[in-house]
Amino acid sequence: MTIWVTHFLLYSLLIFPFVRSKHEIIYTVKEESENGTFIGNILADSGSSDLAASGGDIGVQLYEDQVTGLFQVDGKSGILTVAGRIDREVICPQRGGISSTSSSSSGLTANSLSTCQIEFIAHIPPDNLINIAVTVEDINDHAPIFKNSGTNQLGSRVSSSSYIVYISEGVSVGYEVPINGATDEDAGSYGIQSYSLSIDDGDNTTFALRYVLPSELNLIVKKKLDYEEKTAYRGQLKACDGGMPTPKCAVQNITIFITDINDNKPHFDKELYTVRISEATPVMSVIIAVTATDADSGELGRLTYRFGQTYDQIVTNFFGINEITGEVWVKSPLDAKVLSHFKIPVIAQDGGTIPKTGSTVLQIDVDDVNNHPPWIEVKPIISPLYVKKPIKDGYIQLWIEENQPVGTQIGIILTGDKDVGPNGEVSCNLKDKDSAFRLRHSSSGRERKMYSLQSKVQFDLEAMNLNSPLKLQVECSDSGNPKLVTQQNIQVNVVDVNEFPAYFTKSQSNVIVHIPEDTPPGSLVTKIQATDRDTTPKMEFRLENDHGGLFNIDSSSGNVFTQGKFDREVQSQVHFSVRLLDSDILDSIIPRAGSDLANVTVILNDVNDNSPILESGRTFKIFENRAAHADLIGQLKAYDPDLGENGTVRFISSNNIFDVNPVTGKIYSKTILDREAVAQYQLDIEITDLGRPVSKKTIERIIINVGDVNDNKPVWKMPERLHQGIFLKPVNNVLRNGDKNSESEDIQCIAFVNISSQASEQSQILKLVATDADIDQNANISFSILSGRYYRESALTLSKNNVLNLVENPQQIKIKDYFKVDSTTWVLSAISDDGVIKPKSGLYEIFLRASDNGQSPLHTDAIIYVYYECKGGFVASLFSVLNRGKTVILFGLVCLFICMILCPVLIYLVRTRRKSQECCDRGIIACVDDERIRQEDLLRGGNTEVDSWAKEQMFMAQQPYLSSFDISEDMNCSMLRYHTDKSPINFGQSPHLTYQGCPTVTTIAVS
Length: 1007
Prior knowledge:
By secondary structure, the protein is mainly beta. The protein has eight domains: about 140 residues, Immunoglobulin-like; about 110 residues, Immunoglobulin-like (Sandwich), CATH 2.60.40; about 100 residues, Immunoglobulin-like; about 90 residues, Immunoglobulin-like; about 100 residues, Immunoglobulin-like (Sandwich), CATH 2.60.40; about 100 residues, Immunoglobulin-like, CATH 2.60.40; about 170 residues, Sandwich (Immunoglobulin-like); about 120 residues, no CATH class. GO terms for molecular function: calcium ion binding.
């Protein structure tokens, strides 16, 4: 319906924009009115009664919002009546009787404490909308109610539980305590109007109530509360509304508890407690218990006990109190001599936040018992400074100087007793009446007596010859019953007076002592002895003179100790003096009675702490070829700074070539030495001393050089040729007319030298070469020409095995007119005259000598054969080297051969020379300058050794840096390998030349 009404109103506003509205109509109705109860006439009250007169159904309607079904209107008459139950407390609920003015879309309005209105709209067709407000009047239909309440016999509602309030007894009169009241759903005068309080015991003067509408309720304290007098009040709290004639009421049980405050202090039952005990009362014994009470309750009445402040805090050392029970007990042993009367404040304290206290006094009297023996204290009159313990073996030490008169006071004896009265009265005496001492009472003071111990004789130590101190016993007793006795042992020492000076005797004034040089610091060296005729001499020893800080001395005993390190090799003896000072035994401050001086010499004994040191040189020399032990090579000298066997040196060598004398160190050779075999020897020599138990040693290396002796002759070597036109061939043997040459048996034939016609104009021929196994000047070789002979060109043959056969007798010539040897370069040269060399075609036999430059020079002679070719060239030379026995036949054959090939050769040479320039520029091996090298000589098929002369000629024509060559196309594909010792081309490690070719071009590769 609400949705329909809302839509209708919106529709009406849109359809009927000119609806007229009248003022609000307010009606009143009591809650709980019966259905049909007349409320009012809307038509009449809105001025629309003329419509009712028409007699038709006008169609008056109500448009309610949230509150529906409470009212109805007659459509014809416009009469508004009750249609449902109206419960004001439901429609306008209140809480605790508290109302507030508010409105909402629910159509309910509460604009005062007692006003409850229901608003809605009445529609009077066609266009009147009337605001209707129905005020619901309250009736007294609800009684007040306390929480958890029920109904009592009087018809009032009574709470099933009691409401509890706590109030401190310390609050002042007029103090108000807020309490919770009842609630009433009715409003206005029908709500709660009054409260009353009744106490069970009829006490209505202690509390009152103050109620301020609508809900403030306070409990007022009317008189002073006292917890100790009454702890709780019980009664009823009654709430009534304003209903007439009989109000409705509710009753709540209430209990008011009075809380205690600390308003009472503890109270002892006595102002003074007294107790008398014996000083022998055992520790932990309870002697009395004090008791106090407190009227407060709980914690406030719980008491604790303690001692108060006393004048003498020592009281707390003897007694203690149990803080809970108040029992007083003994903490430590009592002594009536110390304290026999105690007055102790005792305090009881309650448990309040600010505690209250009560106090009393405890008086304790301690009775003495004779439980303390007398005490004795002995004090010496004199006491030596060196004495640190006055009691020795239970005897108290006293001293008296010798020669003191009779009656000299030795010590003071103090005595007393910790007991009091007769138990504390003490007297003393010496137990031995015949001793050399007496005891005299001097004075008495508070609780003690003083006695003087004196001498009865005069003591002289030197005369009495006392070997031990004098002993006596003092006995003291009290007057108790029974008596207690104390005895004290005393030892009297007669002190020697320094009557005689200390001195050194003759034997004591010079002290010599030996110690090892490796003595460690702190070692005892010696004890210095001195003499003093006094019985108890007091001597002091001091070191004097400069001893390098190596020693110190104990001033009292005279013991000398080391305090530094020694080295006998640096300082073998140490000298110093000891000063003896004589002083008084009782007072070290008084001047010395005298002094004396003793000389001390400390001799350091050697220990083997140094290794031998080689002093001599480490390099020696001996000439070779000397007989064994013939010459002294050298002598080793070593030094060891130690003494005796520690410094005795021995030499040890395990070498088999040389002999080293272990004592003298002299070195000899055991065998003949050859410098050319071993030029230098290195020997490790062990140098050791003879120290015991362990010797020290050093290893030194010496060098022995073997000197050279000119014992080797020069050895000739193959000479070196100096240009390309020279052919050099070794000569193994020389025959003369087929027989062995007796002249050259002792002379070495070195070489055959063939000088071609092309090189014949060169003056330098060979460089002479020889070696010598010796060194220096002994190996410095010089060459000279001894003599020479000449052979005609056809007078020799040279076989393939290098045997030279001379078939004619030589001509004696002055060889030095033809040849010379340069003294600097050792080059053999032909002598020239105006640029023309003197040697002619033929063979020159040159006798040479190679000499060294030793003091006794050695030499070796040799022969060199130098052959000069004739102008006929190679053919002539060829004939000359063949067998002379077939000269004519060979000559004819050669001439025929020359004639047969002269023309082809000439043609070939022309072609070759034309091609030679072109090929030589390219480095082609076919390009050779000597026409004597023929193709058939090179290509003999397979592997063939090339003749040396041809090979050399071929090499001379090449560039040394070329590694491949072209051969003319007419050579076949064969391979030629040859070997050579001498070549102008550098072939490296393996001077091999290999020809490999094909039908057109052959390559020569150097490998």
